[in-house]
Amino acid sequence: MRVAVIGAGVAGLVTALELAKRGIAVDVFERSAALGEQACSWAAGGMLAPWCERESAEEAVVTLGRQALDWWPRHYAGTLAQGTLVLAPARDAGELTRFAARTSGFARLDAEGVAALEPDLAGRFRQGLFFAQEAHLDPRRAMAALVEALQAAGVPFHYGVEADETELDADRIIDCRGLTARDRLGALRGVRGEMLVLRTDEIRLSRPVRLLHPRIPLYVVPRSDGHFMIGATMIESDDRRRVSARSAIELLSAAYALHPAFGEAEIVELRADVRPAFPDNLPGIVEDGRTLRVNGLFRHGFLLSPALAGQVADRLLASRELPDAHHRQRRHA
Ligand SMILES: Cc1cc2nc3c(=O)[nH]c(=O)nc-3n(C[C@H](O)[C@H](O)[C@H](O)COP(=O)(O)OP(=O)(O)OC[C@H]3O[C@@H](n4cnc5c(N)ncnc54)[C@H](O)[C@@H]3O)c2cc1C
């Protein structure tokens, strides 16, 4: 069986690797000339946070998302299992109570507990929640590591190819085109997300920190060399234009509220992209002739791709075994 994966975002890369590991011959087609140029995955925070996400997501996100905490460290050595810290300013303490009521898998922290985990936040927050089992990664480095692993496994990459599934010479096609797949998946919609990257040596964090706020919840994901990803807006729109001044102001003010050192940081990057989502905000695998469409990863591309990729591989292997089984039956009849 020869399989063509269309799209080298996180869904396509994780699926291709899972298929290659199970002995299936795969080719990857990506319309951009270079990794990430047109992928929503390039804008992601890289949080692997199933328990925190439960605050606004279905239980399935926790069940499927837990698989990512096992999958990523095995495929990307830079995965950091440091947990997630959730905080709220004293005036928004009610937000922390609300968040705790909707989630599980956390320990409650007092001011000393917060300071012990993140010394640079000492004295700034009276209480917090610590989700110890969660992890994070740098999406761009993780994707590059997957490409390396795929190339080492002999998987051909075809960059700069706008693939048309009707013309591909393959037994099965895995459509991982993200929001572009709306031409075949009418229910798919876009949810705009804006982020920025700051750089400063004035503050160090060891793990993603979520700052709750009734209007502007924010998270800060530490990356290497003093870089911090600050995210993210959630706007019901498929507008991919650049970050608005209003969103930038809101994200920057929230970062400043977490720690004033962010006020002196350099702005390294502002980026907007659009998350592909189905109406229930859960991902899906849609069978359509010889094509399987993997989509609707919404806020959870890095979190849920490993579980979906496993399901795709199971389905392909099961469909490959069927003709053989029939053949055997006929032989014995
Ligand atoms: C600001 C922000 C923060 C986020 N943070 C997180 C997070 O912390 N954790 C998490 O798990 N998720 C996060 N997400 C969500 C995550 O980024 C998405 O769920 C994920 O990127 C969707 O991946 P995808 O592979 O389906 O789509 P994409 O990443 O968009 O990939 C699709 C690829 O298909 C290619 N393509 C399209 N058409 C063709 C064609 N015809 N031929 C060849 N190639 C084609 C595109 O060029 C692209 O490379 C975040 C998203 C945003 C916007």
From TrEMBL:
An example GO biological process term is:
thiamine biosynthetic process
Q: Write down what this protein is called.
A: Glycine oxidase
Presence of keyword Oxidoreductase: yes
Its pathway? Cofactor biosynthesis; thiamine diphosphate biosynthesis
Keywords annotated in UniProt: Oxidoreductase, Thiamine biosynthesis
The UniProt record lists the FAD dependent oxidoreductase domain at 2-315
Q: Does the keyword rRNA-binding apply?
A: no
Q: Which GO terms describe its cellular component?
A: cytoplasm
